[in-house]
Amino acid sequence: METREDHTARGRSAKAVSTPTARERAVVALWGDLTHASDVVRSRLAVLLEAGIGLAPDEVELLMVLAAAPEQRLRMIDVSESLRLSKSGVTRLVDRLQKRGLVLRAACPSDRRVVYAGLTAQGSATLDAVSPVFVAGLMEHLGGRFEEAQIERLRGDLRRIVARDGKAGADS
Questions:
Q1: What is the rounded distance in angstroms from the CA atom of residue 138 to the CA atom of residue 133?
Q2: Pick from 132, 66, 126: which is nearest to 94 by CA?
Q3: What whole-number distance in Å separates Cα of residue 38 and Cα of residue 131?
Q4: For the segment 43-59, what is each residue's pLDDT rounded down to a tens digit?
Q5: At 98, which helix (H) or strand (E)?
Q6: DSSP string across 11-45
Q7: CATH 1.20.1560.10 fits 22-153, yes or no
């Protein structure tokens, strides 16, 4: 005799293997296209950057984030959120750039639990040198594929995806 748990378990497994709808298949395909496009652009940027100054795209992004920050420094947790990296990923990234003299790490004097990552003068000069290569690579492998109106529409669509309240942020 079948128990209630057996019936419920069988129902769950039947739902798990159900055929996706056309919209679900399209969303899965969209996910694949988004991640593939991001990976391709990042890979092409890596080739350009490593051939020049020898930095990876995430390293350039960190320098850019710090350059734009007040006092050219951010709490490590803010770096993590800004770059969408784990705490350990940010630690490794900052460590690599600190060894090269591009970034420094400092404790907050008023709260020893808080650690800042800051841009050094050498990091600022390096960013000045690498920014034209980074931007040119983005224009060639991303921006050059779209008209300006398409870029703004796509940015709006992507901001709606990441918005917490379902509305696109005006500050992005």
A1: 9
A2: 66
A3: 19
A4: 999 999 998 889 999 99
A5: helix 87-99
A6: HHHHHHTSPPPHHHHHHHHHHHHHHHHHHHHHHHH
A7: no
